[in-house]
């Protein structure tokens, strides 16, 4: 048997160049005594927290694979909920930067998140049209609300009622009663998709925005409060009115009608929503973000443009003053005539409640805006733009005027547009990235930007003159030469009539060659010329000769021995010429679409080509024969490069993957997944240990070669197991017995962890039976007790019941329901007696009660129809009631003891515990202001 060839594993390294991704929203956090004001943004799969005082990134909440799509901050703690593209939700503690809870329930990207006022419940909406309510304390899902037909755009808890409001692209806004988990009211007045809404004026006004320029305003009337007001008015209005006497038939018909009306009222009439009118925005694009300041004095909104519109929201006192002013004006007008003045027609208009105040125009398109309170009377403003940039500042609102001050842009750590070309310096120290507006030099070790050059739209690059200069080929046909030390552009040469698609250095380092869209290949030599300004010699380029082709030249490469020159043309062929005479040598044809990238091995024997037809071809340079054609990527191949001094090479494509290949045995060694957009460029360090890639998600990623060996057979086996796991999960939506409504479903979904948890419980039950049988045999034979099972020893369990209990305890709370749901009924009948033993011993009462209630709910039919289960049901009932009662008494006793201790300390020491110091400070401040 031959030896298996081993490779070295390549692992992902740092991610840099991305300021903020435009898929998620931005959150502005107010400053406190120990912390300055901050803003939270999603950056690919990570979450960045920027300090708005120092203008630097202070925290990173690391993600795993999928891109961040939504953020929500808990109002009562330092917890941050993060929604991802795969539908998962992770709750981070921003003090420790650790993930504390993971929720799995959605099947596609999470689009919106929101906490309730206490921070105990979290609601999420997704592209899968579902709304899920999660219990953050118990780390589990409560229920899934189904009713919308398209993507959910926003969800929100009401502050004073157990009601949830959701909006969707299906043009509807729905009100959900969380006590009964059903939709009791639907707002149907929109013609296009609803992209967001706000609740104002103590949740009596609903402002919604859609795909048009209107902000629709709705009045919410809560019928419960109206009924209470009517009861109070009836009790104070005087003696009751005597009703006429009715016949028996009339009474029966009235009773039936009353019962029908009562049923309708209970089902539907919790509130009513009446449209008051519309307020027009100046922007014509769809609404993107709509928010208010904490005191609800201002409303901010914007669309898919650069304008941020601000509306004033006068308070009730200001509106009353406005009405009084209008009445006074009306009376003054009719004072001379002496006629009676009818003031009943003096009413507020919608424009009085929402006044357009001002429009602020920014340099780029807005993606998300958030406002929070700041020191003094200012408002802290954070804006996320669609071009990898964010800005912060303060709004000052006084005397019905608003101004934007102290605007700071976070731009130096990334490009505004896609990076189209990458390069490594010869000393492995610097990385060059260039886009349509600028080129940046990065330190490879620290990922900090060293230099920034303003340039034209760059398509290709190369380091020259011992890494002291950089040459860029641009879309305008120029070759731009930059001095790295001085950070200035030395020369700009009009090289081609069209775009310069590729430049390649000559192996003897005396010059370079460029290929462009004007069908020409030009040769350039380096020379020193006198600079008229600095009076010193600087590097320049001299055009020596030109090779005319019939098609656009997309890529040029020299063989390392400089004997041959390869040119990739628009006609899908690669032409090879002798370098010295420029005579035609060979033509490589076989690609169906143009070759956009290619590279030549260090020994000048192999050339690899990547094409838009998704294929990679490996050719021999001696005879031009195709060694292998590989279907490499699911979309176009965009970049390809050999590892120095090897026959290994990397390829990147629009399918967001980087793949490592062996050109000798045509094996795919490793697939690197991490980018969330099309991969544009790739560069390998001269040492071959580092790979840097650029993507349309604005991120630059470093991949490092390690000393860990990689065996292909093991990799293939791991890939097969992964595919099997994915196939196991794709079995459709789980059906819970007893669920008859299509509106409410179980919150969680089948995950790999829940399947593993089910297998662990089934294994624990088998070990429990085996160990119990061995103990019974030992008692019968009066021999020594049997040895513990190795799994019981690993779990440090002394008895079989302890082992099953520890197995259940180790399952995450968010996965427990899914684990129990997948458990077969035969194993459920084995598990219930064990849960009964734990409850009789009052161990883990809360966990055991949750398991018992869930199992009895989903297996009610089988258990009630089986006479053998009657006994266990009776004992479960008694033991559960006793255990819960004791737990309740213990909690009440502890609460009473703490209350007594608090009162004792307050009486003896004359202090007030757990008092909000800010309340006293605000009262004192108001008193001082009143005096002045």
In short:
Its main location: nucleus. The chain is α+β, with helices and mostly antiparallel strands and 932 residues long. It contains 14 helices and 57 strands.
Task: State the main characteristics.
alpha+beta, Quinoprotein_ADH-like_sf, WD40/YVTN_repeat-like_dom_sf, single chain, five-stranded antiparallel sheet, 14 helices, four-stranded antiparallel sheet, 932 residues, 23% helix, WD repeat-containing protein 3, 57 strands, nucleus, repeat
What order do the helices and strands come in, and which of them pair?
Layout: E1 6-16, E2 27-29, E3 38-43, E4 46-51, E5 56-61, E6 68-73, E7 79-84, E8 88-93, E9 98-104, E10 110-115, E11 121-126, E12 130-135, E13 140-146, E14 152-157, E15 163-168, E16 173-177, E17 182-187, E18 194-200, E19 205-210, E20 214-222, H1 223-235, H2 248-268, E21 271-280, E22 287-292, E23 298-303, E24 307-312, H3 316-333, H4 350-353, E25 355-361, E26 366-373, E27 378-385, E28 390-398, E29 401-410, E30 421-424, E31 430-434, E32 438-443, E33 449-454, E34 458-464, E35 469-474, E36 478-483, E37 488-494, E38 500-505, E39 511-516, E40 520-530, E41 537-548, E42 553-558, E43 564-569, E44 574-578, E45 584-588, E46 595-600, E47 606-611, E48 615-620, E49 626-631, E50 637-642, E51 648-653, E52 657-662, E53 667-673, E54 679-684, E55 690-695, E56 700-711, H5 712-729, E57 744-745, H6 752-781, H7 790-794, H8 800-809, H9 813-821, H10 825-840, H11 845-858, H12 860-864, H13 870-909, H14 917-931
Antiparallel strand pairs: 1-56, 2-3, 3-4, 4-5, 6-7, 7-8, 8-9, 10-11, 11-12, 12-13, 13-57, 14-15, 15-16, 16-17, 18-19, 19-20, 20-21, 22-23, 23-24, 24-25, 26-27, 27-28, 28-29, 30-31, 31-32, 32-33, 34-35, 35-36, 36-37, 38-39, 39-40, 40-41, 42-43, 43-44, 44-45, 46-47, 47-48, 48-49, 50-51, 51-52, ...
